[in-house]
Design a protein that fits this description.
With 255 residues, the chain is of the alpha/beta class. 34% of the residues lie in helices and 27% in strands. A hairpin with a 5-residue loop joins strand 11 and strand 12.
Length: 255
């Protein structure tokens, strides 16, 4: 579980997050929606202890974040960043094995168990053809899959994803979000991810949090908080609802 209470963050003297409070539950996918610059990435970096808050309190799986040691945090939480620029030409398999570091002794090498976990995740993600390719020579979308695999190799309780559909084609967007939701349900993962498309949030989210100018504008079940009025307030864009059934669909008004 993730519990954030009255979190405020300031970067380079500028306020980014203001008194943000939210919860994300195990077995559920919680989606953060908001325009560029609303503080979504800053929130994820705060949750992963990469940014220190000005005030507020964060609890991960009943443990205060500021009391967790680095190794314990790496076993508890994994994050897929929005962008990743590799330096060394590791293979995709080796990149995913890096996710096992918190499970391996300080002077030890990955063992049979670690390689088995990675092999299973490669099968799960359907990326056998990429496994032995250099990570530096695959597409942006393929890197996203490899980074997700690295995070799953950590066997975390909490999974943070910053725009996991970035660089993915339409088919893979759907497949990855479907897989993330299934993993949350099957493994009891607490998943918090950012998206730009409200329709994807409606399809795959169990909970939605709308973030505007560093503040929580609304939170609740996606069908309750994602509608024409809230999207107009959030993005300054008129939209219309094309379907009122179980598969609600929003479309921007072009005239």
């Amino acid at each position: 579980m993730i519990a954030v209470n009255h979190l405020s963050v300031r970067l380079n003297g500028q306020p980014i997050l203001h008194q943000v409070s939210l919860q994300a539950r195990p077995g559920k996918v919680t989606v953060l929606l908001g325009p560029n610059g609303s503080g979504k990435t800053t929130l994820l970096l705060s949750l992963s202890a990469q940014i220190a808050p000005e005030e507020g309190h964060i609890v991960l799986a009943d443990q205060p974040l500021d009391e967790l040691k680095t190794r314990d945090l790496a076993r508890l939480l994994a994050i897929v960043p929005q962008e990743h620029h590799p330096v060394f030409p590791y293979t995709v398999r080796e990149v995913m094995l890096l996710g096992r570091l918190s499970r391996v002794g300080f002077w030890s090498q990955p063992g049979t168990r670690d390689r088995t976990v990675v092999a299973e995740i490669i099968d799960l993600l359907g990326i056998k053809s990429l496994a032995d390719k250099p990570y530096t020579r695959i597409s942006g979308g393929e890197r996203q899959l490899a980074l997700l695999g690295r995070c799953l190799a950590q066997e975390p309780q909490v999974l943070l994803l910053d725009e996991p559909t970035n660089h993915l084609d339409f088919r893979n967007q759907v497949l990855i979000l479907k897989l993330i939701r299934e993993l949350a349900q099957q493994r009891g993962l607490t998943v918090l991810l950012t998206l730009h498309d409200p329709n994807l949030a409606l399809l795959f989210g169990d909970q939605a949090i709308l973030l505007a100018a560093g503040k929580v504008a609304a939170q609740g079940p996606p069908r309750d908080v994602i509608n024409a009025a809230s999207m107009a307030r959030l993005y300054g864009l008129e939209v219309e609802i094309l379907s009122q059934g179980p598969q609600r669909l929003l479309c921007p008004k072009l005239s």
